[in-house]
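Most newcomers find our protein records easier to grasp once they have seen one. To make this concrete, we reproduce a full record directly below:

===
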Amino acid sequence: MGMTADALFGAAAGTLGAATAWVGALSYLFQIYFDFSGYSDMAIGLGWMFGFHFKENFNYPYSSTSIREFWRRWHISLSSWFLEYLYIPLGGNRKGKVRTCINKFIVFLCTGIWHGAGGNYIFWGALHGTVRILEKCIEKKELYIKIPKAVKWIFTMLIVSIGWQAFRFS
C-alpha cells in the first residue's frame, strides 16, 4: 500500500486521472491503518512477552458508519486519553448542547495539534470536529435514521480519506 501511495502521490501534478488519484488515496487510507494497527499489535505482543496485557487499540475502524463510531474504533488509547484528560475536564456533555459541541470541536482541534502544529493537522482536526458536530445535530432526526448504512459508510470513509490526505501532505 505504501509503495503504491508513494508512487501515485509522487506523480507530476496533472498526470493522474480521477480513478488513479482515488487509488492513491485509498492506498494511503490502508497504509496508515496497517502502519498504526501493526505498531499497536507489535506493542501488544511485546507486552505479552513481558507479562503485560494491553487492550486492542483498533477495532475495525473502516467498518464504521459515522465519524463517532470511527473514533470509538480508531486509536482507542488516544481517543480515551483525550476523553479523560480534555473532554471531561472541559465539561463533557454536562453543560448543555452548545457547550457539548464546542467541547467536541476543541478536542478534535487539539487532536490535530497533537499530531503536529501545521495547518494540515489543524484542518484534519477541524474536519473531524465539524463532521462530528453535524452528526450530533442530525443523529436523532428521522431523516438520518432512514439513510441506508451503505450511504453512511461511504460518507464516513470519504471524510476519513479526505482527512488522511492532510496527513499525507505534511
Notes: The helical segments are 2-9, 18-49, 67-73, 76-87, 97-115, 119-138, 142-146, 149-168. The mean pLDDT is 92.
